[in-house]
Design brief:
Shape: globular
Structural class: alpha/beta
Strand content: 15-25%
CATH class: Alpha Beta
Order of helices and strands: HHEHEHEEHEHHEHEHE
Distance between the termini: 31 Å
Radius of gyration: 17 Å
Number of domains: 1
Length: 253
C-alpha cells in the first residue's frame, strides 16, 4: 500500500499546483486553511506565489535560525517555508528543499528564480530516503508532511542522520487523540487529506525519541476539528473521543 499511497499523494499535490486557488479548491489538506493567513503573511520572506495553504503551522517561528545556517525543509512544496528560512540565514547560509512531487519542484524553482536566490536549492526526493549527506543540516523544518509518510520511523531516522549533532528540527504536523474512526483510517483519499495518515500524539513523540532525539517538546498544539472536512460529519457515540490537532514539535540531536 505504501507505493500506492505515494503515487496518490504525488498526483494530488501535482494537481494542486495546477489550480489557481489554494487547496480549498483542490481538495487538499482541509478546505479551510489550517494556518491563519494573517500570521503567515507577516513572516519575513513570505512569498504569496509559494503559499498553497497546505501548512498546519509555522515552524520557522519556533526555532532560532541564524545567519550562515544550513536549513533543510522536508516536503518543501512551492518553497514558502524555505524562503522564510532564507531571510534568516542570509546569503551566508544554504537552504535545501526536498519534495517528491515534480510539479511542486518546478513551481518552487520558478519562485526561486523570481527571487534571485543563489543559495537555495530544491531536490527531488523521498523523506524515507532523503537525498542529503549525513550531518549536513543546522535546522530541519517540515510542515504538514510527515503525516503523509507511510513509514514515520524511517522518516525520523533519516532526519536524525542528516542533522548535525547538537542541532534542532522544528516540525508542524497533524496528530490525533482518541480512536480514529474506520471510515477515515481506511480511506486513501482521506490519507491525502492529512487525517488518515495521522497517528496519536504520544505515539508520534515516542517515534521521535526512539530515533535518538532529546529535548523533544510540543511548542504549539491547536485543535483542528472544525477545519478538517473529513471530520465534520462524523457521528461519534458518547463514549468515543476523537480529535485532530496541529502540533509543532522541537527536538535536538
Amino acid at each position: 500500500m505504501s507505493d500506492r499511497l505515494k503515487e496518490v499523494i504525488k498526483n494530488k499535490y501535482g494537481e494542486i499546483t495546477r489550480q489557481s486557488d489554494s487547496c480549498c479548491s483542490s481538495g487538499g489538506c482541509g478546505c479551510e486553511p489550517m494556518v491563519s493567513r494573517e500570521n503567515y503573511t507577516t513572516q519575513p520572506g513570505y512569498v504569496k506565489d509559494a503559499d498553497f495553504g497546505l501548512g498546519c503551522g509555522i515552524p520557522t517561528r519556533f526555532v532560532n535560525i541564524q545567519k550562515g545556517d544550513t536549513v533543510i525543509d522536508l516536503g518543501s512544496g512551492a518553497g514558502n517555508d524555505l524562503f522564510i528560512a532564507r531571510r534568516y540565514t542570509g546569503e551566508e547560509g544554504y537552504c535545501i528543499g526536498i519534495d517528491m512531487t515534480e510539479e511542486m519542484l518546478k513551481k518552487a524553482e520558478e519562485n526561486k528564480d523570481k527571487l534571485g536566490y543563489e543559495n537555495v536549492e530544491f531536490r527531488l526526493g523521498d523523506i524515507e530516503n532523503i537525498p542529503v549527506d549525513e550531518n549536513t543540516a543546522d535546522i530541519i523544518l517540515s510542515n504538514c508532511v510527515i503525516n503523509l509518510v507511510p513509514d514515520k520511523r524511517k522518516a525520523f531516522q533519516e532526519i536524525y542522520r542528516i542533522l548535525m549533532p547538537g542541532c534542532k528540527f522544528c516540525i508542524s504536523d497533524i496528530v490525533i487523540e482518541g480512536e480514529m474512526p474506520d471510515e477515515i483510517r481506511n480511506s486513501v483519499e482521506m490519507y491525502v487529506g492529512c487525517v488518515a495518515g495521522a497517528i496519536r500524539k504520544n505515539e508520534y513523540l515516542d517515534i521521535i525519541k526512539t530515533a535518538g532525539f532529546s529535548d523533544v517538546e510540543v511548542v504549539e498544539l491547536k485543535n483542528l476539528d472544525i477545519k478538517i472536512p473529513e471530520t465534520e460529519n462524523l457521528e461519534l457515540s458518547e463514549d468515543e473521543n476523537f480529535g485532530v490537532f496541529s502540533a509543532t514539535i522541537l527536538g535536538t540531536k
